[in-house]
Amino acid sequence: MTDRLIDITDAVRRLEATGYLASPQIGTVTFLADQMEKPVLIEGPAGVGKTELARALATATGRELIRLQCYEGLDEAKALYEWEYAKQLLYTQLLKDKIGELLQGASTLKEAADRVASADAVFFSKRFLLPRPILQALLSPQPALLLVDEIDKSDPEFEAFLLEVLSDNAVTVPELGTLKAVHVPRVLLTSNNARELSDALKRRCLHLYIDYPTKERELRIVRARLPKISAQLADQVVTAVAKLRAMELKKGPSISETLDWAQALVVLNADTLSAELVSSTLNLVLKHEADIAKAKSQLPTLLP
User: In angstroms, rounded to a whole number, what is the distance separating the alpha carbons of residues 221 and 189?
Assistant: First the structure.
């Protein structure tokens, strides 16, 4: 059962109850999106918790999470619906006797074609409709949260199509007509800024930029996710990650990579960061060899 957010404090509290430590800005935007029934465009570096926010918000509000992963070449059919042609063919085989009866007595090819056309509704009905994520979210009997992940990877043409769906909360299936949302879904779109999104899309959405967290917030995240880590080690890891992000790297460490590094150090029974330990585990937090080499050249600055 869905439960609307009461206020910003309630939004932050409920998100934290799912394990997502939300900033006041995140709490404000999620509360407004829930009350105003507007989509949210979430931008920011990869790995800062954009997708995780969608999962947390779905749990916090009791909505089913439906995810559409975007990629180059994604089109309406893959995002909206398909006809189950194999099922249609199977039914055609099972009903071939009935089709024979339908065509019996037809004197011309045109008359036979007209009779077959009159039965179109049987084979192009919801029975054979295979909803994809967008239509699933609109037709879901239970209120849903639609996550359009990495919208910046899709083509501008798909973005334009998505605008129409977000504006109308309905889609048109030529064989069935317009299908309206059973419940208006909450919609979260994420972007890693691989390309500039259109002003039209941005106008229709509330905007939220999630950056790398402050040291204090990241420390809270590490302690919450890894309760077995010592306070000293958690502080050293978060401090070292902040220093890595300050370097001019090809890709700075994300929150998820901070957590991977911290968890690995716990598994290794580490109590403190040493030069040898940092050197042997940097590959967990940095994913480019040039970045690792650069960090190793400044290794003393990473140590407590």
Answer: 23
Those residues whose C-beta lies under 8 Å from the C-beta of residue 117, and which sit 6 or more positions away, are none
Q: How far apart are CA 154 and CA 47, in angstroms?
A: 19
Q: Which helix (H) or strand (E) holds 79?
A: helix 76-79
Average pLDDT over residues 193-203: 89
- Whole-angstrom distance, CA of residue 25 vs CA of residue 33: 12
Q: At CA 301, angle to CA 288 and CA 268, rounded to 5?
A: 65
* Single-letter amino acid, residue 48: V
User: How large is the C-alpha radius of gyration of the chain?
Assistant: 26
- The 10s digit of each residue's pLDDT in 44-75 is 988 899 999 999 999 999 999 999 999 998 88
Q: Please tell me the distance from the alpha carbon of residue 220 to that of residue 236, in angstroms, as a whole number.
A: 13
Are 187 and 162 contacting, i.e. CB atoms less than 8 angstroms apart? Answer: no
Query: Helix, strand, coil % (nearest 5) of the chain?
Result: 55, 15, 35
Q: What is the pTM of this model?
A: 0.80
DSSP, collapsed to helix, strand or coil, labels residue 82 as strand
